[in-house]
Amino acid sequence: MGSLPSPCGHLALDDESACMIDRRELGTLFESQRTHLNYFFDNLDLEQALSFAQALLDAPGAVFFSGVGKSGFVANKLSQTLASLGFSRSAYLSPVDALHGDIGALFPLDLLILISKSGSSDELLNLVPCSRAKGARLISITSVVGNPLAALCDMNVHLPLEREICPFGLAPVTSTAIQMVFGDTVVAAIMRARKLTKEQYARNHPAGKIGKSLIFKVKDLMKTQEDLPLCKEADMIMDQLTELTSKGCGCLLVVNDESCLIGTFTDGDLRRTLKISGEGIFKLTVGEMCNRNPRTIKPDAMAVDAMQKMESAPSAVQFLPVIDDRRVVIGLITLHGLVSVGL
């Protein structure tokens, strides 16, 4: 079998100067990209952006995005982002596959957004008459003035492009950046206009950390009933070692006869008590050595808030007793339990 060519062409891999990135040149490129992005922001027609955003917001049917090459990746990403908000049906329509049957997904009153730097891609131009025959409304997003695609669509949004930072001024590395920035900013405007709540957003992101942080409440993840390491303040410390260690919580919840929380006693408290008291620990009750002012949380609090409370100053803790308005212990939530579900 032949070997793959060197990533630096004909230069030997052991030549340390072969493929080194120059720090100053890299810094210059970032500055150039910043300049080109600022050019986009400074010259964007806000009225065009507003009309486009309103068209998305008012779309009576589905919203399809299409593009070729790198613009196609941007179109695909924006369609997924819009779909994740749950406002309307949104999908990516490949311009090639569309002409081989996928255009069947397009119905009258649907919106088709065609993203292209040049506005002269044959694949998109060929898609226009077929989409019109289906009754769709067409919007183009382009960066070249006077392009043929813009002339064929119902609306065009011009994205000002000073130049690509590619050494040849050809590779779409700045144009795709402004396409993504423009699209994502419009999506954010739609979220604000629709007054999207965290709960609505979470419904469409149940598996990821975003959804979990917005969906899970303390009562969904807390230990309850027989899993709680409960004891009374008059119990001897040494008599409660089994309860302290067997429940896997690293603590005891000290309660009164009405199950109201008095305090907590941790395995750390056990070590400190043993170090200070020595054999005297055999005569000490849990109530004498427990923390009577522990951090607590309510069952309807968000799980992510419980994690923040555990990690807050002055020192982190591994658990929080869950109590009701009368301080009755109804559960225990642990840091391990939060981490295990992906928070």
From TrEMBL:
Residues 222-284, 290-343 form the CBS domain. Keywords: CBS domain, Repeat. GO terms for biological process: carbohydrate derivative metabolic process; carbohydrate metabolic process. CDD domains: CBS_pair_SIS_assoc (cd04604), SIS_Kpsf (cd05014). The keyword Glycoprotein does not apply. Pfam families: CBS, SIS. PROSITE patterns: CBS (PS51371), SIS (PS51464). Coiled coil: none annotated. GO terms for molecular function: carbohydrate derivative binding; isomerase activity. The keyword DNA damage does not apply. The record marks 70, 123, 164, 205 as: Catalytically relevant. Belongs to the SIS family. GutQ/KpsF subfamily. This is Arabinose 5-phosphate isomerase. It comes from Vanilla planifolia.
